[in-house]
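Q: Structure tokens for this one, please.
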Amino acid sequence: MFEVSVDYSFAAGHALRGYKGKCENVHGHNYRVRVTLAGENLDASGLLVDFADLRAAIQDVAQRLDHRYLNDLAPFDSLNPSAENLAKYFFDEIQGRIGNRGVRVEEVTVWETELTSATYRPNAR
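A: Here is the predicted structure, written as tokens:
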């Protein structure tokens, strides 16, 4: 199996609902997102997927969130905008954009800081 990963950064604010601590208050992060795609076969050029195409898909999703207050945006207006939920959101959005070309989203990691991250990986396929 082959894997390809692209990182992308954006900034956004949020507040964790029901959290007992300072993160319940409005604050922001310079998020970093890593999307990893996987597949068995390479194309005629020897690529699983073009890095530029994956970067464009991530950017398309991130631009909706960049420099915004996440709690005001669906689905985070009802879903807590945690790093875990952001990772699942990017997973679902990117999977929907790549379709069924023999490539799938393997996992998504979202960093809130250089030292803290959350990863979403679906159950065994």
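A few notes: The chain has a mean pLDDT of 95. The first strand starts at residue 2 and ends at 14.
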